[in-house]
Amino acid sequence: xxxxxxxxxxxxxxxxxxxxxxxxxxxxxxxxxxxxxxxxxxxxxxxxxxxxxxxxxxxxxxxxxxxxxxxxxxxxxxxxxxxxxxxxxxxxxxxxxxxxxxxxxxxxxxxxxxxxxxxxxxxxxxxxxxxxxxxxxxxxxxxxxxxxxxxxxxxx
Length: 156
Description:
mainly alpha; Four Helix Bundle (Hemerythrin (Met), subunit A); two-stranded antiparallel sheet; 2 strands; globular
């Protein structure tokens, strides 16, 4: 199996399950209501805001793989659309799952040599950016796990 396929698997495992941590984004969000998703604790971002933020950067790098310029701005990465119902929350989740799969397919289909091509002097090569998204999402998955425990404890 070539390296891009392994990296795509790593992204899918993080998102949908099967990674070494035994924790995936889909699993952790499966029992979160929209009310809990938008709730904040201790001045931390809400779970919904973290999901949006994770997907924001995933889409930025996904766009790079699709040949688009890298034009995302960090200050927009928490511009979560207003979530006022379970339907709104489920729509955000559906978009997140779809975008993760598109990103994984783009990674899988790329020739391995492209991994080492430079995106820019500032951002390094494609591998660094793809792996950065995976690391970033693992980091925020950990936050979501902790916030979920805090919020569910506070609610009860």
